[in-house]
Description:
Distance between the termini: 96 Å
Mean pLDDT: 85
Protein name: Putative DNA-binding transcriptional regulator YafY
Number of strands: 11
Domain WYL: 139-206
CATH architecture of the largest domain: Roll
Strand order of the largest sheet: 6-5-4-3-7
Low-confidence stretches: none
Largest sheet: 5 strands, antiparallel
Structural class: alpha+beta
Pfam families: HTH_11, WYL
Radius of gyration: 30 Å
Number of helices: 13
Order of helices and strands: HHHEEHHHHEEEEEHEHHEEHHEH
GO molecular function: DNA binding
Keywords: DNA-binding
Shape: elongated
CATH topology of the largest domain: SH3 type barrels
Amino acid sequence: MTKADNMLSILWMLRSGKRMTAQQLAEKLEIHVRTVYRCIDSLCASGVPIIADSGPNGGYRILDGFSESPLLFDSDERKGLIHAAVFAREAGYPHSEAVDRAVDKLKRYTNEKQLDRLERHSGGLSVIYPPLAGKYRTFLQVLEEAAGQGRTLEMEYDRGKGDSPSTRSFDPYGIVYWKGSWYAVGHCGYRGEPRSFRVDRIIALRETEGRFERPASFSAKDFLLGSLLPDAGSQELETVRIKAQEQALNELCQHWLFGHALAERSPEEAVFRLERSTLDTYVPYFLMPYGTALKIESEPLVRRMAEVASRMAAYYESTLSQLTVERKLLDE
């Protein structure tokens, strides 16, 4: 028989609940005892929780309750599930508790050596992410359930611009995790078109009796990226050439805005096509931490960065003067 046949035969004999030695298995299958050892090792690597008991009445047996375990996972699959559970928990995935229960079941059907390996892998991965408040986890659960059931929600939302929260009907097509934040994407009854909403700005969600059908070709991820990234066909773009060390340019190109706008790239130079409005708002503040490590060849951007740097310098000089005066008053 092939090795696979031998492994399957050993598995079925041990599933009977009877403890059997390697010699007994070898005699039953008419194979060498070393072949049994190799098959046992392969079964353990495939996820079968085989226990080796020593002593006069020892032998191999399968962990009690294994017959209730519906699937077998190899070591890489188990490690992947453990790490996925860590990511889900730290990123605020709405059903992370269910993932943790699944991992607990996985651990339940492992032997001592397999369990020790799982515990070591679970402690070898960390995710730095701000804790998600309990109510937002609840909102994510409600949004995901409504998306799956096609149920319309009533949403109270704070736009974050100092206005009073507004209430609207909302058909959630899906939830998206992007750049450390959760977004709900769907049809907004107030605007009458698809929109995206930051989950951490939602004030309240209420179920309604309304129903909806999600468009078959709609992608919540594609819609969100399309609404956040500039549209080269409808925006006035500025060519920005930046020279720097390769590592600095690599970091810059990994940013969602610059990576999307990259037109040309060499080891120490990158050319971007950036929306002009972002040169006055977002781009200067993102490039400021690089200091003089970047050589920027774009007069509008360089002028804007000089303005921002001058304003920041004036602000902190004023702050420093104020602190100096306050310290003198305290000393007196």
